[in-house]
Amino acid sequence: MSEYGMNCARQNLLEIGAEFCGYRVVRLLGKGAIGEVYLVKQENLDSFFALKVLYPEISATDSETVKRFSREAKIGTRVRHRSLVTVHVCGYDEELRANYMVMDYVPGGSLRVALGSAGRIAVDRAVRIITQLSDALSLLQRYGVVHRDIKPENIILQPDGTVKLVDLGVAKAMKIEDSLVTLSGAAFGTPIYISPEQITDASDVDTRSDIYSLGVVFFEMVTGRCPFIGSNIAQVLQQIMDDEPIPDVRDISPDVPSDVAVLIRRMCIKDRSRRLQNFESVLAELEKLPYDLRGCRSPGVVYNPRSNGGK
Fold this sequence. Notes:
This protein is α+β, with helices and mostly antiparallel strands. It folds into two domains: 19-106, Phosphorylase Kinase, domain 1 (2-Layer Sandwich), CATH 3.30.200.20; 109-287, Transferase(Phosphotransferase) domain 1 (Transferase(Phosphotransferase), domain 1), CATH 1.10.510.10. Helix content is 33%, strand content 18%. The protein contains ten helices and 13 strands.
């Protein structure tokens, strides 16, 4: 993992320099509402990883968060792609009384930070980012996983140009062969980016919902703003749900090529039966654009249904 919002209101769970499950704690990367993330080093491998630890009280009392945590770990061990974060170890530490996972450490900043700094992303770079993400999401689709929370905060831009999609904690897994739990009755995801069907029934979503959300991110990258803006969340949700299509990106940024504008609109059609239906179709449309996409698709993918991400 890369960035977590800092919350200094409580004492850190782990001390810098301490040993934890075979890893040495290097520094705190961030704190959140449910736990902390540390940079750790595996001395024998001379390699750095990210260690995510739930707060003990969360592990003890919040079963739904623990289920989501377990789901993220299982998906991270079984579906592997250059643009996804791999989980290497997960478990429960008896001394700390907390669930934990060890995953790739991803240097770089989020797309949200990049947008905050630059305002918008050049179209050719945006197309390369969307292609890498679509390639990763196409793999998730093959194994029945819907991310459900695609947003700039969950997209990490690495210094070498590689993009990482993080946070599978609210993902819905439909085909992975074990007891992954899916949740229903709540519109998981960030309201600005969720699809109309996710608002109506979060338990009835599929890959097309991720396509919509990625289209909204694409829209924001090339224009510097989201398609729907309101003074409160209720107004934004109403705009997502009504019959009006998303604005044409060229009304905001006239320099965006028409073929890019059309693709964004096709990804964000509110009626999912008319939207692009899978990420292979999205990738096919991206590859028609006049941009250099060499290196955007990952040649090496490993799926390991028997990995030890948890029972």
